[in-house]
Amino acid sequence: MRTAVILTARKEKDSEIPYPLIPFEGDTCLIDRTINILTRIGYDHIIMVVGYHAELFEKYANSQIVLVKAPDYKYTASMASLAAAKEHIQEDFLLVEGDTFYESKVIEALSKTTHKNCLTITGESGSGDEAFVETNQGFITKISKDKHQLCNFEGELMGISKISFETYQRMLQRWEQCSNTIMNYEYMLMDCTSVLERPFICFTNLIWGEVDKSEDLYNLRNYIYPKLRRKEDPFDHDNLICYLQDIFPDENVAEQTIIEQIGGLSNKNFKVTFSGREYVLRVPGIGSEGMVVRTFEEQNSLQGCRLGISPNIPYFNDKTGVKLTDYIHNAETLNSATIQRKSNIRQIAAIYQTLHRSYIRFNNDFNIFHEIRKYEELMLNCNGQMFQGYAGIRDDVFGMEARLNELGVQLLPCHNDAVPENFIKDESGKLYIIDWEYSGMNDPHWEFAALFLESDFIEDNQDYFLDCYFEGNVPPETKEKILIYEFLQDILWSIWTVVKETQGDYFGTYGIDRFNRGLDNLQKLKQN
Asked: What's the distance, Cα to Cα, between the start and end of the chain in Å?
């Protein structure tokens, strides 16, 4: 299979330039990235279906890339675009939607599959335009943009598929009889195939996205692509082998180990397959020194293991921060969409109940005001410059301590870092919480604020979580305390970002966006 079709005819709603052609990093745009991935893997017959401002795509035409104009692109949808390429398709082919950003491993996996047809799915993104899928025993049984139509949705359909020539011919025959000019190709494929002709590959923890509007482009530039850059910036392989050799001194690690990077925000995480066993190796990231006391992290994470809310940790080096954790096979890492499913919210509330009511006394406190002062000092020591406007609100930041004391602060064992990626689900559906770097004795309302803030919880889901946690008796001061902690967290993590970036890391607009949101929440607090 050497043929690939890129669909990029759609008329944009809010841009004069097609989004696949707008650079997101330097001079690189989505079309450039897709073509580079395809040609690197060996596709030398690429058909690009164009429409909206077709003249802007002409520079790509060459001996390997054919441009096909989609007729009536303004009034049709993706099936019409795919049908327009029929004169140039003579074999099985890869289909890529031009507005899609993805890791190259998606194309690599589809290119290797022996299935004639194969679709790709991943975790729910929360974009608002998802095509949800229902599956059964490895095959897709239903696709819908309406969750209410699915009994069990397994994830979201990506705009990248392998389609057999035979299936394509059936789709074309059905299309000739179709009166619906705005039909999309994925629904036509469902119409023309049986369940057993619709296998899929599911990618967990995938960095990907679609660019349909200006907000999507902003997120790609400032969040999604920086995350991929960090993931694709591997540590030296020999150093990783040395870490593992220290952990397994009696084993010949170099000859037996398979290492695969699996991401991480502030640290680098690697899946390690060794002697038939699977682990996650955590190596601290840039600029971690001075931010985390590894002794406390080790002690607190082991307590989490004993409580059954965190995976087993066979090895922890409290000097270097290198950690080895049991790998949870086929684990699903939650994201800002999947974490808000009611079943997951109930489990997270139960995890926090188990931790907060455990009567464990961590050996360290997590005091937000001490943390802010500590990060301010780190920022000064590395010649960092805080965002404009911070000096004017610093008194407001530290003035919140008095109000919190008035409302009442109860110190309990807390995890303190409720980003969705720190919740993972095993094959049986059980949730675990991981990464205890910032854990310590704290007010549980900090946890709730972090949970809501990091995943942009809608108000109904906030109320549902609080109702689950407090078992129907939510204290009256809860909402105000959560808002105060949301404000303080945005300030803390914006300073954290400045420190990390002075050490060479890159987070796009993550820091300034958090700072600006903190300013908005400060105004809400003052109005109340």
From this structure: 63
